[in-house]
């Protein structure tokens, strides 16, 4: 039914058989047939494809995909090459520059981070064009909560980056003391000045990984 191509297939096999997911699947069939939905169907599970369970060292949680044409491709905050940077992504790159001196890349496609073990996971994986949160409450949150819970069980320490209210609401799922939770305001222009700018999360993430003798993230390697 779903083929991701790495260890997530085994970890989520039973989840994809459950009634809630089968109902979600039928809902998505109707939506993709009768409306414009993002990301393209083949990109829905890209976050899991690019970042296996075994390789995951950092989790960055988003809310739902960008709802504009050509933007979403299955990685939170990321846009395809050639697409203008949305405001939240612009602010992420501003914070990255302020912390580490990394200049904004030519492309907003964050595949380089994903391939280093940064799981770029939205809590809802699809959306109707022009209608943010239109697929909220259809079952995606049950699946993504399960993904977060599985990651919480990992013996290898993980950094969870919780930016904004939606991401921070998942904090209760992260109970394993070996992990690090970093939380702040969302990078949206509406809230970035309320604690996202100056959060230091890129530096703090690598300090934690280094402390635990894990490979650091090369945050300058943004594109693949």
Description:
The protein is α/β, with parallel strands linked by helices. It contains eight helices and six strands. The chain has a four-stranded parallel β-sheet with strand order 3-2-5-6. It has a two-stranded antiparallel ribbon with strand order 1-4. It is globular and about 45 Å long. The chain starts with 7 loop residues before the first helix and ends in a 13-residue tail after the last helix.
- Proportion of strand residues: 5-15%
Mean pLDDT: 97
The whole-angstrom Rg is 17 Å
Number of helices: 8
Helix residue percentage: 25-40%
Distance between the termini: 28 Å
Report the order of strands and helices: HHEHEHHEEHEHEH
Quantity of strands, as a count? 6
Outline the biggest β-sheet. Answer: 4 strands, parallel
What would you call the structural class? Answer: alpha/beta
Give the strand order of the largest sheet, numbering strands 1, 2, ... along the chain.
3-2-5-6
> What are the segments in which pLDDT stays under 50 over at least 5 consecutive residues?
none
Characteristics of this structure?
224 residues; 4-stranded parallel sheet; two-stranded antiparallel sheet; globular
């Amino acid at each position: 039914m779903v083929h991701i191509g790495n260890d997530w297939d085994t970890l989520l096999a039973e989840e994809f058989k459950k009634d809630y997911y089968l109902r979600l699947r039928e809902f998505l069939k109707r939506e993709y047939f009768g409306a414009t939905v993002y990301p393209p169907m083949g990109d829905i599970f890209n976050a899991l494809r690019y970042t296996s369970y075994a390789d995951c060292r950092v989790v960055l949680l988003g809310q739902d995909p960008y709802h504009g044409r050509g933007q979403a491709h299955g990685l939170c905050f990321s846009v395809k090459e050639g697409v203008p940077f949305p405001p939240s992504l612009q602010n992420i790159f501003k914070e990255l520059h302020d912390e580490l001196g990394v200049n904004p890349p030519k492309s907003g496609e964050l595949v380089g981070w994903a391939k280093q073990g940064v799981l770029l996971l939205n809590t809802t994986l699809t959306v109707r064009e022009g209608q943010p949160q239109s697929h909220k409450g259809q079952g995606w949150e049950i699946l993504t909560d399960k993904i977060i819970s599985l990651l919480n069980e990992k013996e290898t320490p993980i950094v969870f980056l919780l930016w904004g209210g939606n991401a921070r609401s998942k904090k209760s799922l992260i109970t394993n003391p070996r992990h690090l939770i970093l939380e702040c305001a969302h990078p949206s222009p509406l809230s970035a000045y309320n604690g996202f700018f100056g959060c230091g999360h890129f530096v703090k993430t690598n300090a934690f990984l280094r402390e635990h003798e894990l490979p650091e993230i090369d945050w300058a390697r943004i594109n693949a």
